[in-house]
Amino acid sequence: MAGSGTIRVSPKPERVWALLAVLAGMATILIEIPAALMSESGYSFTRQPISHLGMTGCGDWGDVGTPIEVCSPAHPFVNGVSIIAGSMLAIIAFIWHDWIAPSRWGRCGSFLLAAGGMLLAGTGMVPADIDPTLHTVFGFGGSAIQNLGLLAAGIALSRWPEKRWIGPVEFGGLTLGLGAFGLAGALFLAAPDSWNLPVGIVERAASYPFLIWFILAGWMQLRDASRRKRELASGR
């Protein structure tokens, strides 16, 4: 199946990749809930970063003056989901380059989103207590690149003649909004410690837009594939 703004594959693989995008995005977000509940030291979604759920050891962590006790028995699941989902989203981002828009902006967005997926996988491969510096590079760099990818994809979608709507909202504009929101969150991650920002909220503001975009994009493709199937069945 080929055409403006569609993936150039048959309907069945299109639905498969769309479903995998939805599942990967949702799994990465939702795994935090059971991991937080299983945390032996307690977990605050406001005060603690996501990386605390993936730490392999137990003990005090953080600044000397304000250490936080961390112990996450579910770290293999958190890190495993990051590795698998990040790698999967990177592959899907490459496959979706024509769906985003067959243009330079579309290819740029696809490449950056794929790179962001691989950096997400990197955060799972290198937990914060194994190599704090490399984990920070993967985490902060991933958030920046992911949201730059959303901005590029948003420009491509907005400039492409075939508009896509998710409810009453134009998807290109929504993509730009998610990218801008996430990039602002990434910039706040670099704020001085003296600002005393709620690091858990700020980190999720930087990383969730990337995942939410894949969930929404996958859902749109599943919806459109089902509509096309009904139209073919009815002989339209």
Structural topology:
Blueprint: H1 11-30, H2 32-38, E1 59-61, E2 68-70, H3 75-95, H4 97-100, H5 104-125, H6 132-159, E3 165-166, E4 169-170, H7 171-189, H8 199-233
Antiparallel strand pairs: 1-2, 3-4
Helix pairs in contact: 1-3, 1-8, 3-5, 5-6, 6-7, 6-8, 7-8
Organism: Brevibacterium iodinum ATCC 49514
Keywords: Membrane, Transmembrane, Transmembrane helix
Protein name: DUF998 domain-containing protein
What brief labels describe this structure?
236 residues, mainly alpha, two-stranded antiparallel sheet, disordered N terminus, transmembrane, transmembrane helix, DUF998 domain-containing protein
Describe the structure.
This protein is mostly helical. The chain has one domain. 66% of the residues lie in helices and 4% in strands. It is built from 8 helices and 4 strands. Helix 6 packs antiparallel against helix 7. The two termini are 16 Å apart. Mean pLDDT is 90; it is low at 1-11. Pfam families: DUF998 (PF06197). This is DUF998 domain-containing protein. InterPro entries: DUF998. The chain crosses the membrane at residues 16-37, 77-96, 108-128, 134-157, 169-190, 205-222.
Compute the CA-based radius of gyration.
19 Å
* Low-confidence regions: 1-11
> Could you tell me the number of beta strands?
4
Pairing-aware structural class of the strands and helices? mainly alpha
Global mean pLDDT: 90
Helix-strand sequence: HHEEHHHHEEHH
Number of domains: 1
Helix content: 55-70%
User: What is the spatial order of strands in the main beta sheet?
Assistant: 1-2
Shape: globular
Question: How large is the count of helical segments?
Answer: 8
Which percent range describes the beta-strand content? Answer: under 5%
State the major sheet.
Answer: 2 strands, antiparallel
